[in-house]
UniProtKB/TrEMBL annotation:
Originating species: Eleusine coracana subsp. coracana
Coiled-coil spans in chain: none
Boundaries of every Reverse transcriptase zinc-binding domain copy: 1-52
InterPro entries per the UniProt record, alphabetical: RNase_H-like_dom_plant (IPR044730), RNase_H-like_EbsB-rel (IPR052929), RNaseH-like_sf (IPR012337), RNaseH_domain (IPR002156), RNaseH_sf (IPR036397), RVT-Znf (IPR026960)
SUPFAM superfamilies referenced in this protein's UniProt entry, alphabetically: Ribonuclease H-like (SSF53098)
Any Pfam family: RVT_3
Domain RNase H type-1 residue range list: 154-229
Protein name, UniProt field: Uncharacterized protein
Length: 234
């Protein structure tokens, strides 16, 4: 629904409301400096520009800032890689939500809070769109043992947004697929900020156990795409 309204220029930003004869100010509720049209709200406001820069997508923002309509913006989005598409769409939606809160008198969200919100929802969307495990013949993908003298640590976690609670678990197996004594664990997190947070704690707990058991070489396996990219980066 958000994307449809975005593409058809029907979101009730202040310029649109003015155009429909609603008695309201047209200035941006975030920066208070310029009229709040589509271009300013999503691509030119100083707060929104900071987010694009933090996420390394400022070059895309520059291209979209020159678009004449929401539909033209979406045409640009569909030309991007699927992962980038999802992140941009997630951002546009979360930024609109943050803007509405500021418009109703709540405080303006910080860049860090906005990035956290985008990453949390993006991570969940990635999980929802991930294809079911299986091969072309319809069979399930089996767990693969690690190489000689290496252990494999599998981790997983869950997160309940309504309560902020999370759960984590891990299991360690050797090259023969044997579960090691004391090679597993799990727990409850009373204050969790996101699914990514819970997954990170699962990794931390699992690696600590592996270190305590004296394992020199460990392969970490997780279905958390963002966490995997972070851990394998510099």
């Amino acid at each position: 629904m958000f994307l449809w309204r975005f593409a058809h220029n029907s979101l009730p930003n202040r310029v649109n409301l003015k155009r429909r004869k609603v008695n309201t100010e047209s200035s941006c509720p975030i920066c208070k400096r310029f009229d709040e049209d589509y271009g300013h709200l999503f691509f030119k406001c100083k707060t929104v520009k900071a987010w694009w820069q933090v996420m390394g997508l400022d070059h895309i923002r520059n291209e979209m800032a020159s678009c004449q309509s929401g539909r033209e913006v979406m045409q640009q989005v569909w030309k991007l890689e699927p992962g980038v598409q999802t992140k941009i769409i997630t951002f546009l939606w979360r930024w609109w939500t943050a803007r509405n809160k500021a418009n109703s008198g709540e405080r303006v969200i910080t860049v860090g809070e906005l990035c956290h919100s985008v990453e949390y929802h993006y991570h969940n969307f990635q999980k929802l769109t991930k294809p079911e495990r299986g091969n072309a013949m319809g069979g399930t993908v089996k767990w693969k043992p690690p190489v000689h003298e290496t252990y494999k640590l599998n981790i997983d976690a869950s997160f309940l947004a309504s309560s902020g609670k999370g759960w984590w678990g891990f299991v360690v197996r050797d090259q023969d697929g044997q579960f090691l004594e004391e090679g597993g664990g799990g727990g409850h997190i009373f204050r969790t900020s996101s699914a990514l947070h819970a997954e990170a704690i699962a990794v931390w707990q699992g690696l600590e156990r592996a270190a305590a058991l004296g394992m020199p070489r460990v392969v970490l396996e997780t279905d958390a795409t963002i966490l995997g990219k972070v851990l394998s980066s510099t």
